[in-house]
Amino acid sequence: MSPPENRLFTIGKDLLGIILLLIFLILFLNFDRLNDSEMLNDIPSAWVNVNTIFLSIVIEAIPFILLGVFVSAIIQIYISEDTIQRYLPSNVYASLFPAAVLGAIFPLCECAIVPVVRRLIKKGMPLHVGVVFLVAAPILNPIVALSTFFAFRTDLTILYSRMGLAFFLSIIIGAIIYIVMKNEKGSVLRSTKSADDHHHHHHHHQPSGFTGRMRQMSYHAVDEFFMMGKYLILGAFIAALFQTFLDRATLMAIGGNDFTAPIVMMAFAYLLSLCSEADAFVASSFSNQFTSGSLVAFLVYGPMLDLKNTFMLFAFFKTRFVLVFMITVTIVVFIAVLLLQMFLL
Q1: pTM of the prediction?
Q2: Euclidean distance between the first and final Cα of the chain, in Å?
Q3: Distance between CA atoms of 168 and 172, rounded to whole angstroms?
Q4: Which of 178, 230, 266, 274 has CB 3.0 to 4.6 Å from 128, enough for a Cys bridge?
Q5: What does the domain layout of the chain look like in residue ranges?
Q6: What is the pLDDT of residues 226-262, one digit of tens each?
Q7: What is the Cα–Cα distance from 65 to 89, expressed in whole angstroms?
Protein backbone atom coordinates (compact mmCIF):
# COMPACT_ATOMS: atom_id res chain seq x y z
CA MET A 1 0.00 0.00 0.00
CA SER A 2 1.17 3.53 -0.65
CA PRO A 3 1.73 5.76 2.43
CA PRO A 4 -1.58 7.71 2.07
CA GLU A 5 -3.54 4.46 1.71
CA ASN A 6 -1.67 3.00 4.66
CA ARG A 7 -2.55 6.03 6.79
CA LEU A 8 -6.22 5.81 5.79
CA PHE A 9 -6.26 2.09 6.62
CA THR A 10 -4.69 2.76 10.03
CA ILE A 11 -7.15 5.60 10.75
CA GLY A 12 -10.04 3.32 9.76
CA LYS A 13 -8.88 0.57 12.11
CA ASP A 14 -8.38 3.01 14.98
CA LEU A 15 -11.80 4.53 14.33
CA LEU A 16 -13.39 1.07 14.41
CA GLY A 17 -11.63 0.35 17.69
CA ILE A 18 -12.88 3.60 19.24
CA ILE A 19 -16.46 2.94 18.07
CA LEU A 20 -16.42 -0.59 19.50
CA LEU A 21 -15.04 0.62 22.82
CA LEU A 22 -17.66 3.39 22.97
CA ILE A 23 -20.45 0.88 22.32
CA PHE A 24 -19.14 -1.27 25.15
CA LEU A 25 -18.92 1.70 27.55
CA ILE A 26 -22.47 2.84 26.69
CA LEU A 27 -23.86 -0.66 27.29
CA PHE A 28 -21.83 -1.09 30.47
CA LEU A 29 -22.70 2.27 32.03
CA ASN A 30 -26.39 1.95 31.17
CA PHE A 31 -26.81 -1.76 31.93
CA ASP A 32 -28.80 -1.30 35.16
CA ARG A 33 -30.93 1.44 33.60
CA LEU A 34 -31.70 -0.79 30.63
CA ASN A 35 -32.68 -3.64 32.93
CA ASP A 36 -35.18 -1.41 34.74
CA SER A 37 -36.46 0.19 31.57
CA GLU A 38 -39.64 -0.77 29.77
CA MET A 39 -37.58 -0.62 26.57
CA LEU A 40 -36.58 -4.23 27.23
CA ASN A 41 -40.19 -5.29 26.71
CA ASP A 42 -39.82 -4.32 23.07
CA ILE A 43 -36.46 -6.09 22.62
CA PRO A 44 -36.49 -9.85 21.90
CA SER A 45 -35.17 -11.83 24.85
CA ALA A 46 -32.48 -13.39 22.65
CA TRP A 47 -30.82 -10.01 22.10
CA VAL A 48 -30.96 -9.25 25.83
CA ASN A 49 -29.15 -12.56 26.35
CA VAL A 50 -26.55 -11.57 23.72
CA ASN A 51 -25.95 -8.31 25.60
CA THR A 52 -25.57 -10.12 28.94
CA ILE A 53 -23.09 -12.72 27.63
CA PHE A 54 -21.15 -10.07 25.71
CA LEU A 55 -20.74 -7.78 28.72
CA SER A 56 -19.77 -10.62 31.06
CA ILE A 57 -16.96 -11.76 28.73
CA VAL A 58 -15.57 -8.26 28.15
CA ILE A 59 -15.76 -7.12 31.79
CA GLU A 60 -13.83 -10.20 32.94
CA ALA A 61 -11.17 -9.84 30.26
CA ILE A 62 -10.36 -6.09 30.29
CA PRO A 63 -8.25 -6.08 33.52
CA PHE A 64 -5.95 -8.71 32.04
CA ILE A 65 -5.61 -6.80 28.78
CA LEU A 66 -4.62 -3.67 30.73
CA LEU A 67 -2.06 -5.64 32.71
CA GLY A 68 -0.73 -7.24 29.53
CA VAL A 69 -0.31 -4.01 27.55
CA PHE A 70 1.60 -2.25 30.34
CA VAL A 71 3.99 -5.16 30.87
CA SER A 72 4.45 -5.42 27.09
CA ALA A 73 5.20 -1.68 26.99
CA ILE A 74 7.86 -2.06 29.70
CA ILE A 75 9.52 -4.83 27.69
CA GLN A 76 9.34 -2.78 24.50
CA ILE A 77 11.14 0.15 26.11
CA TYR A 78 13.58 -1.45 28.56
CA ILE A 79 14.57 -4.85 27.09
CA SER A 80 16.48 -5.17 23.84
CA GLU A 81 16.58 -8.09 21.41
CA ASP A 82 20.32 -8.40 22.08
CA THR A 83 19.59 -9.14 25.74
CA ILE A 84 17.24 -11.98 24.79
CA GLN A 85 19.62 -13.42 22.21
CA ARG A 86 22.59 -13.41 24.62
CA TYR A 87 21.09 -16.20 26.73
CA LEU A 88 20.38 -18.66 23.91
CA PRO A 89 22.84 -21.57 23.26
CA SER A 90 24.34 -21.90 19.78
CA ASN A 91 23.55 -25.66 19.50
CA VAL A 92 20.49 -26.31 17.30
CA TYR A 93 18.50 -28.58 19.62
CA ALA A 94 19.89 -27.26 22.90
CA SER A 95 18.52 -23.81 22.03
CA LEU A 96 14.91 -24.99 21.71
CA PHE A 97 14.28 -25.46 25.44
CA PRO A 98 15.65 -22.05 26.56
CA ALA A 99 13.64 -20.38 23.79
CA ALA A 100 10.46 -21.88 25.23
CA VAL A 101 11.51 -20.75 28.71
CA LEU A 102 12.05 -17.21 27.41
CA GLY A 103 8.54 -17.36 26.01
CA ALA A 104 7.31 -18.04 29.55
CA ILE A 105 9.01 -14.89 30.82
CA PHE A 106 8.00 -12.25 28.29
CA PRO A 107 4.25 -11.47 28.07
CA LEU A 108 3.95 -10.62 24.39
CA CYS A 109 0.65 -11.32 22.64
CA GLU A 110 0.42 -12.82 19.15
CA CYS A 111 -0.10 -9.30 17.75
CA ALA A 112 3.26 -8.05 19.03
CA ILE A 113 5.37 -11.21 18.77
CA VAL A 114 5.61 -11.40 14.95
CA PRO A 115 7.56 -8.12 14.47
CA VAL A 116 9.68 -8.91 17.55
CA VAL A 117 10.69 -12.33 16.16
CA ARG A 118 11.39 -10.76 12.77
CA ARG A 119 13.78 -8.30 14.41
CA LEU A 120 15.48 -11.12 16.32
CA ILE A 121 16.00 -13.16 13.12
CA LYS A 122 17.36 -10.07 11.34
CA LYS A 123 19.91 -9.74 14.16
CA GLY A 124 21.05 -13.35 13.72
CA MET A 125 18.73 -15.52 15.78
CA PRO A 126 18.28 -18.96 14.10
CA LEU A 127 14.92 -19.40 12.40
CA HIS A 128 13.87 -22.46 14.45
CA VAL A 129 14.61 -20.62 17.72
CA GLY A 130 12.56 -17.66 16.53
CA VAL A 131 9.68 -20.02 15.71
CA VAL A 132 9.74 -21.47 19.25
CA PHE A 133 9.58 -17.96 20.67
CA LEU A 134 6.87 -17.06 18.14
CA VAL A 135 4.47 -19.79 19.29
CA ALA A 136 5.44 -19.97 22.97
CA ALA A 137 5.49 -16.33 24.07
CA PRO A 138 1.77 -15.55 23.45
CA ILE A 139 0.74 -18.45 25.75
CA LEU A 140 3.55 -19.21 28.17
CA ASN A 141 3.59 -16.12 30.31
CA PRO A 142 2.25 -15.24 33.78
CA ILE A 143 -0.53 -12.95 32.57
CA VAL A 144 -2.07 -15.57 30.27
CA ALA A 145 -1.72 -18.20 33.00
CA LEU A 146 -3.48 -15.87 35.46
CA SER A 147 -6.34 -15.06 33.08
CA THR A 148 -6.79 -18.78 32.27
CA PHE A 149 -6.84 -19.58 35.98
CA PHE A 150 -9.63 -17.07 36.66
CA ALA A 151 -11.60 -18.16 33.58
CA PHE A 152 -11.38 -21.90 34.45
CA ARG A 153 -10.93 -21.83 38.21
CA THR A 154 -13.51 -24.63 38.56
CA ASP A 155 -11.59 -26.85 36.11
CA LEU A 156 -7.85 -26.27 36.39
CA THR A 157 -7.06 -29.18 34.05
CA ILE A 158 -7.70 -26.69 31.23
CA LEU A 159 -4.99 -24.40 32.62
CA TYR A 160 -2.47 -27.22 33.09
CA SER A 161 -3.23 -28.68 29.66
CA ARG A 162 -2.90 -25.32 27.94
CA MET A 163 0.45 -24.47 29.52
CA GLY A 164 1.88 -27.98 29.22
CA LEU A 165 0.91 -28.42 25.58
CA ALA A 166 2.11 -24.95 24.63
CA PHE A 167 5.54 -25.59 26.14
CA PHE A 168 6.18 -28.98 24.58
CA LEU A 169 4.51 -28.22 21.25
CA SER A 170 6.54 -25.04 20.80
CA ILE A 171 9.72 -27.15 21.03
CA ILE A 172 8.31 -29.78 18.65
CA ILE A 173 7.19 -27.13 16.13
CA GLY A 174 10.62 -25.46 16.27
CA ALA A 175 12.36 -28.81 15.64
CA ILE A 176 10.07 -29.62 12.69
CA ILE A 177 10.68 -26.19 11.15
CA TYR A 178 14.44 -26.74 11.48
CA ILE A 179 14.26 -30.16 9.79
CA VAL A 180 12.04 -28.92 6.93
CA MET A 181 13.74 -25.54 6.36
CA LYS A 182 17.41 -26.26 7.19
CA ASN A 183 18.38 -26.59 3.51
CA GLU A 184 16.52 -23.44 2.55
CA LYS A 185 18.87 -21.07 0.73
CA GLY A 186 18.72 -17.43 1.69
CA SER A 187 16.72 -15.67 4.34
CA VAL A 188 13.02 -16.42 4.89
CA LEU A 189 12.45 -12.72 5.60
CA ARG A 190 11.01 -10.40 3.01
CA SER A 191 13.44 -7.64 2.10
CA THR A 192 10.85 -4.87 1.81
CA LYS A 193 10.90 -2.16 4.43
CA SER A 194 7.84 -2.27 6.66
CA ALA A 195 6.05 -0.16 9.19
CA ASP A 196 7.72 -2.27 11.85
CA ASP A 197 11.13 -0.97 10.78
CA HIS A 198 9.87 2.56 11.23
CA HIS A 199 8.40 1.68 14.60
CA HIS A 200 11.65 0.06 15.72
CA HIS A 201 13.66 3.00 14.42
CA HIS A 202 11.39 5.37 16.30
CA HIS A 203 11.99 3.62 19.59
CA HIS A 204 15.73 3.72 19.17
CA HIS A 205 15.52 7.48 18.79
CA GLN A 206 13.18 8.10 21.68
CA PRO A 207 13.88 10.90 24.15
CA SER A 208 16.38 9.89 26.81
CA GLY A 209 15.68 9.98 30.50
CA PHE A 210 12.92 8.67 32.72
CA THR A 211 10.24 11.10 31.49
CA GLY A 212 10.88 10.30 27.83
CA ARG A 213 10.80 6.57 28.45
CA MET A 214 7.58 6.81 30.46
CA ARG A 215 5.95 8.83 27.69
CA GLN A 216 6.97 6.27 25.07
CA MET A 217 5.77 3.45 27.33
CA SER A 218 2.36 5.08 27.72
CA TYR A 219 2.07 5.58 23.93
CA HIS A 220 2.89 1.92 23.35
CA ALA A 221 0.40 0.76 26.01
CA VAL A 222 -2.44 2.89 24.60
CA ASP A 223 -1.77 1.68 21.03
CA GLU A 224 -1.79 -1.97 22.13
CA PHE A 225 -4.91 -1.51 24.27
CA PHE A 226 -6.93 -0.13 21.36
CA MET A 227 -5.57 -2.82 19.04
CA MET A 228 -6.38 -5.67 21.46
CA GLY A 229 -9.63 -4.13 22.71
CA LYS A 230 -11.35 -4.03 19.35
CA TYR A 231 -10.53 -7.70 18.68
CA LEU A 232 -11.76 -8.70 22.14
CA ILE A 233 -15.04 -6.82 21.75
CA LEU A 234 -15.65 -8.24 18.27
CA GLY A 235 -14.80 -11.76 19.48
CA ALA A 236 -16.99 -11.49 22.55
CA PHE A 237 -19.91 -10.29 20.44
CA ILE A 238 -19.54 -13.16 17.94
CA ALA A 239 -19.27 -15.66 20.80
CA ALA A 240 -22.45 -14.26 22.34
CA LEU A 241 -24.25 -14.55 18.98
CA PHE A 242 -23.09 -18.16 18.57
CA GLN A 243 -24.32 -19.18 22.00
CA THR A 244 -27.64 -17.40 21.68
CA PHE A 245 -28.74 -18.15 18.11
CA LEU A 246 -27.01 -21.40 17.18
CA ASP A 247 -29.36 -24.33 17.69
CA ARG A 248 -28.56 -26.01 21.02
CA ALA A 249 -28.91 -29.51 19.60
CA THR A 250 -26.48 -28.70 16.79
CA LEU A 251 -24.05 -27.05 19.22
CA MET A 252 -24.12 -30.06 21.57
CA ALA A 253 -23.71 -32.50 18.66
CA ILE A 254 -20.64 -30.67 17.34
CA GLY A 255 -19.17 -29.83 20.72
CA GLY A 256 -19.57 -33.28 22.20
CA ASN A 257 -17.66 -35.10 19.45
CA ASP A 258 -13.99 -35.67 20.32
CA PHE A 259 -12.93 -35.41 16.67
CA THR A 260 -15.04 -32.59 15.24
CA ALA A 261 -15.11 -30.35 18.33
CA PRO A 262 -11.36 -29.52 18.26
CA ILE A 263 -11.55 -28.75 14.52
CA VAL A 264 -14.47 -26.37 15.05
CA MET A 265 -12.85 -24.61 18.00
CA MET A 266 -9.50 -24.29 16.20
CA ALA A 267 -11.30 -22.70 13.23
CA PHE A 268 -13.21 -20.47 15.64
CA ALA A 269 -9.95 -19.41 17.34
CA TYR A 270 -8.34 -18.66 13.97
CA LEU A 271 -11.21 -16.47 12.75
CA LEU A 272 -11.84 -14.61 16.02
CA SER A 273 -8.15 -13.62 16.39
CA LEU A 274 -8.50 -12.90 20.09
CA CYS A 275 -5.74 -11.55 22.30
CA SER A 276 -4.19 -14.36 24.36
CA GLU A 277 -4.69 -12.39 27.58
CA ALA A 278 -8.46 -12.50 27.05
CA ASP A 279 -9.28 -15.60 24.97
CA ALA A 280 -9.77 -17.82 28.04
CA PHE A 281 -12.90 -15.90 29.01
CA VAL A 282 -14.42 -16.45 25.56
CA ALA A 283 -13.47 -20.14 25.68
CA SER A 284 -14.98 -20.59 29.16
CA SER A 285 -18.32 -19.34 27.84
CA PHE A 286 -18.42 -22.52 25.69
CA SER A 287 -17.51 -24.89 28.53
CA ASN A 288 -21.05 -26.29 28.80
CA GLN A 289 -21.29 -27.09 25.08
CA PHE A 290 -17.80 -28.21 24.02
CA THR A 291 -15.40 -30.88 25.24
CA SER A 292 -12.44 -29.94 27.43
CA GLY A 293 -10.08 -31.04 24.65
CA SER A 294 -11.68 -28.69 22.15
CA LEU A 295 -11.39 -25.79 24.61
CA VAL A 296 -7.68 -26.58 24.99
CA ALA A 297 -7.39 -26.65 21.18
CA PHE A 298 -8.97 -23.17 21.07
CA LEU A 299 -6.60 -21.85 23.75
CA VAL A 300 -3.42 -23.33 22.24
CA TYR A 301 -4.07 -22.88 18.51
CA GLY A 302 -5.45 -19.32 18.53
CA PRO A 303 -2.39 -17.61 20.07
CA MET A 304 -0.06 -19.60 17.80
CA LEU A 305 -1.95 -18.91 14.58
CA ASP A 306 -4.91 -16.68 13.81
CA LEU A 307 -6.21 -14.52 10.99
CA LYS A 308 -4.55 -11.27 11.99
CA ASN A 309 -1.08 -12.72 12.60
CA THR A 310 -1.36 -14.66 9.31
CA PHE A 311 -1.46 -11.32 7.49
CA MET A 312 1.54 -10.15 9.51
CA LEU A 313 3.44 -13.35 8.74
CA PHE A 314 2.87 -12.98 4.99
CA ALA A 315 3.95 -9.33 5.23
CA PHE A 316 7.23 -10.10 7.03
CA PHE A 317 8.16 -13.62 5.83
CA LYS A 318 8.36 -15.40 2.49
CA THR A 319 5.37 -17.46 1.37
CA ARG A 320 7.03 -20.90 1.58
CA PHE A 321 7.98 -20.43 5.23
CA VAL A 322 4.53 -19.12 6.19
CA LEU A 323 2.76 -22.08 4.53
CA VAL A 324 5.13 -24.60 6.17
CA PHE A 325 4.62 -22.88 9.52
CA MET A 326 0.80 -22.82 9.23
CA ILE A 327 0.56 -26.48 8.19
CA THR A 328 2.97 -27.58 10.92
CA VAL A 329 1.18 -25.70 13.70
CA THR A 330 -2.26 -26.92 12.60
CA ILE A 331 -1.31 -30.61 12.33
CA VAL A 332 0.80 -30.68 15.51
CA VAL A 333 -1.85 -28.98 17.66
CA PHE A 334 -4.69 -31.16 16.33
CA ILE A 335 -2.80 -34.45 16.86
CA ALA A 336 -1.67 -33.34 20.32
CA VAL A 337 -5.23 -32.49 21.36
CA LEU A 338 -6.53 -35.85 20.11
CA LEU A 339 -3.83 -37.63 22.16
CA LEU A 340 -4.62 -35.45 25.16
CA GLN A 341 -8.30 -36.39 24.95
CA MET A 342 -7.47 -40.10 24.61
CA PHE A 343 -5.13 -40.38 27.57
CA LEU A 344 -5.64 -37.49 29.98
CA LEU A 345 -8.97 -35.64 29.57
Answers
A1: 0.71
A2: 47
A3: 6
A4: 178
A5: 44-343
A6: 766 666 677 678 777 877 777 667 767 777 788 889 9
A7: 33
